[in-house]
Amino acid sequence: MELRRALVRAAVARPGVLLAVSPGATRQRLAVEAELARRGWTCVSGPAETDLLVIVSDREDEGEGEGRDEGGESDWVAGLWQGIPAPKARVWVTDPERAGDALDSGLADLERGEHEDDHAPDAHHEHHEHHEHQQDGGTAPHSDHGGHDMHGGHHGHAGHHGHAGHDMGLVEGLPMADRADDRDGLRLDVLHVPLGPVLADWPAGLILHLTLQGDIVQEVTVEPVATPPSPSPPFWDEPWLRAASGEHISRGDAARRLCAAHLDSLGRFFAVAGWDDMAARIRHVRDRALAGAIAAELTSLVSPLIRRAQRSRTLRWLTTGLGTLPAEQARQRGVTGPALVADGDAYSRMLVWLEAVGRSAAACDVTEALDTAEVVGPRGRLDTPVPPSKALLDSLPRLLEGTEFASARIIVASLDPDLDELTHVPAPGTVHSHG
Fold first, then answer.
1. Which of 262, 303, 338, 370 has the highest local Cβ count within 10 Å?
2. Segments in the chain below pLDDT 50
3. pTM for the complete prediction?
């Protein structure tokens, strides 16, 4: 017993953390990720590897009290929690300034919970032998026909633990395949595979419902998680929206936010492509930008990373030809940001981000006022009837249908829609008075 306790204590000293981020909570997520990096704690890809579930929200009423009412949390969070084996703990982060306190509390709960588990498991430390509830955040399903590699490799990142198994029977937590004719008249397994809303390196609040035959995505439906409207501006768009409302915002402040936003997107892109070392380095620079590092430091940090990414033959090979979006089609769908400028595939969109990072890093110290003649944020124009990320989401089905399942997550990461933009309800007369 003492040996078991010692082993558990050593294991939870650096727990595996699963982030469950609600739309609108980008500021809180960034604070948690920076604190996790400082501690050297690992973010895991799914419930099976999780010790500590960190629920990140911008709603101040989230997580109040130790014994939060199960009925008061969203279904996907409740299902996610049930799919995590004991010992486990969970915390809510709503105040970015207290992210470290929340992680300390979670670590203490983990250590305390294991001792309780030695005697009588309670609701928070019960081990679930069955996995029916994993449809709200468990493993992404696979079929014996088609042989998806769900847990590794480069393109294999498409199958990180996802939102699995609706409207089908479940066998050991995995959905059973139906049958349908493919385009050649062959009878192939059909799987209905929801991805999200909780995946590592995935847009917060996004669920994609995919219909697969073999390895090929046949149909895609986009479903944002239902989230209460937020009066707060989306974090990444904040400088431009504040300037548009008449507030004095410097060009340097806007450049700093743009630089960090694209670094955040690049971190997801590299992680999904399997380049974890580069993703970690990019996120370190992102955190330095948000912490106020001067332009000279940021430029010295990003320049070698930009060159390294541009010269990577492996990255080019992995991402060229995926999710091609010609500029004319992008305009027709209302796309106005980097995806329009790129006029091409996932690799082209990454190159546009890299160029914008270098340019904006050098401009972080500029003090003159931001020009509001055209209000353009990291994902596009903010003075149009709908937010730029809505146009990106609307483009996803066409880009994904007909592609290999293993490529889906790279394509999503190359657009990186920000669902915070969909939850923001601006005051009348300001930008994005969308319905």
1. 262
2. 62-72, 115-177, 179, 428-429, 433-435
3. 0.81
